[in-house]
Specification:
Alpha-Beta Plaits; Udp-n-acetylmuramoylalanyl-d-glutamate--2,6- Diaminopimelate Ligase, Chain: A, domain 1; rod-shaped; 19 helices; Beta-Lactamase; 14% strand; 5-stranded mixed β-sheet
């Protein structure tokens, strides 16, 4: 908090203790700041004032008539003098003129009388000594602030570090948004600020863009006529400028307590530090992705709870609170990893807040949905863009670690499929068991025991038989349908099935044999999928 010398504090200095000091008018304004001290005995002394001065006078320039005294007081009030101190030791007045008292009270100008003479030079010296000391301390604090932001830049911190430091130094909530009004970071959270963040678009777009007057510099919390803007928490907003163009805005949410000049200067320095950070690294988007990936890693490893995850996600600009949560694990339709943050772009375009991380071969996202009914929309969006992936059940924050495993299981099945598809965990059925077994040696042993001779056969011939077996099993053992699916004659299919029975040593017409082979084929497909890297 910036230091200021008020009229009240100045009157408590040692020099004023040498005489009786009485406040005749304007007592309600004794907390006005004093910026300087001036003395004068001429009627037009107001011409030499620039505002917030303590004027010391023996009263010689105030005039002898009530009309002159009222005019003198009005001129000082219009010049924004902080206080008028009048010596009442007989040089001009023995008592404070009634006209001066009435006019000063009406104008709100503090009017102070001194019963005896005091040296005005010494008064000026004591006040100026206090003011200079305050200014020195202010410069030291500003230098420390500048050095703190410089240290962040030297430590290669990104915008999150700058936002945290600004919130710490001002003690106020801070939000960083880009030019598209997307919230990128939130620091110094409070319940009041959380309510603003919940409806950030209204605050950022409607309030700032349509109601510029709401960024106030006077006392009180402003209200707008429209119902949606009532009880607005005002804030100071500083642009982040890159190469002469606005990159975004830094918001200092101050509520009904106006920010001090020192806090506004700190806000300006933070914006400048952000600009330097962004100019020095074009990979700011990559930095954000790395942050989100690291956050997902901590959730995967059990380092944080689901509720803590939501709190940290909010600091990254992704507000998942109060929403139904699902986890999505996806890759490109050809099974290759994304090269252009496709998943993040699709989720952002759909308007769903999400923490998206790159786990290597796959992207994983914790998505916040507005309603439970929006869950099928996620499946539709991913499918329409030809992605492969898996979707978990809707979960509460505490169950997010479980949802991560569910989506990975569903994605494992989707990647093993012949064509691009998106699978929901609830639709996996027995495949859930196979996915779990694929993490250890049991499934490999089972596949080898059931299909080993066939896989060995296919490795040595140009026309493998495993595709025929897979189609036959997918058709439920219906030979006519399988022949149509394979585009071959039934006689050819019968010949292949006889050969499969010979190699496997099993009667393929028996349902129990079909079931065991179906599991083995699905297991084989899962084991051949691209590796889901553990993060």
């Amino acid at each position: 908090m910036a230091e200021i010398l008020t009229v009240r504090a100045a009157l408590e200095l040692e020099v004023f203790s040498r005489t009786e000091v009485r406040v005749y008018a304007g007592e309600r304004n004794l907390d006005r700041p004093v910026r300087w001290v001036h003395t004068g005995e001429i009627p037009d002394i107001h011409r030499f004032l620039t505002g917030q001065e303590m004027l010391l006078t023996a009263g010689l320039g105030m005039g002898e008539t009530a009309l002159q005294q009222r005019a003198f007081i009005r001129r000082l009030a219009d010049a924004r003098a902080a206080v008028l101190v009048v010596e009442l030791a007989g040089r001009m007045f023995d008592a404070m003129p009634e006209a001066a008292v009435e006019e000063a009270e009406a104008a709100g100008l503090p009017l102070v009388g001194l019963a005896e003479e005091i040296p005005f030079v010494e008064t000026s010296a004591q006040v100026h000594e206090v003011l200079v000391g305050m200014r020195v301390r202010q410069l030291i604090a500003e230098e420390a602030t500048s050095q703190a932001f410089m240290d962040l830049l030297l430590a290669d911190e990104d915008y999150l570090g700058v936002v945290r430091e600004l919130a710490r130094r001002t003690g106020r909530p801070v939000v960083l948004e880009d030019v598209a009004h997307q919230m990128l970071a939130y620091g110094g959270a409070t319940p009041e600020a959380d309510e603003v963040v919940d409806k950030w678009s209204a605050h950022s777009r409607a309030i700032h863009e349509r109601h510029h007057s709401l960024v106030t510099h006077g006392p009180g919390v402003p209200t707008a006529p429209a119902a949606s803007f009532r009880e607005v928490v005002p804030c100071a907003r500083q642009p982040v400028v890159l190469r002469g163009e606005s990159w975004g805005w830094l918001h200092l949410l101050h509520g009904g307590v106006q920010p001090t000049p020192a806090e506004l200067r700190t806000l300006e320095r933070a914006a400048a530090a952000l600009a330097i950070t962004l100019l020095s690294e074009r990979e700011s988007g990559a930095r954000s992705s790395q942050r989100q990936t690291a956050l997902l890693n901590r959730l995967l490893l059990g380092d944080i709870t689901g509720d803590r995850f939501l709190s940290l996600a909010l600091a990254l600009g992704q507000d998942l609170r109060g929403r139904d949560l699902i986890v999505v694990t996806a890759c490109a339709g050809d099974g290759e990893p994304f090269k252009d943050s496709t998943l993040a772009r699709l989720l952002h375009k759909a308007g769903w807040p999400a923490v998206v991380g790159d786990t290597g071969d796959f992207d994983m996202a914790v998505v916040g949905l507005p309603t439970r009914g929006a869950a099928p929309d996620v499946h539709t969006v991913l499918s329409e863009h030809g992605l492969r992936g898996g979707i978990s059940r809707l979960v509460e924050p505490a169950a997010l670690p479980l949802a991560l495993r569910q989506s990975r299981s569903a994605a494992s099945v989707a990647v093993a499929a012949a064509t691009a598809e998106v699978r929901h965990f609830d639709d996996l059925g027995a495949l859930r068991l196979l996915v779990a077994l694929s993490e250890g040696p049991e499934l490999r042993r089972y596949v080898e025991d059931e299909l080993g001779p066939l896989l060995e056969h296919d490795a040595l011939v140009k026309n493998p038989l495993l595709p025929t077996l897979r189609t036959f099993l997918d058709c439920g053992g219906n030979k006519a349908r399988a022949a149509d699916e394979l585009f071959i004659q039934r006689r050819t299919l019968y010949h292949r099935l006889d050969r499969l029975s010979e190699i496997l040593g099993l009667d393929l017409t028996r349902v129990d044999n079909q079931q065991r082979l179906q599991l083995a084929v699905h297991g084989h497909d899962l084991l051949r999928r691209p590796t889901l890297r553990r993060t």
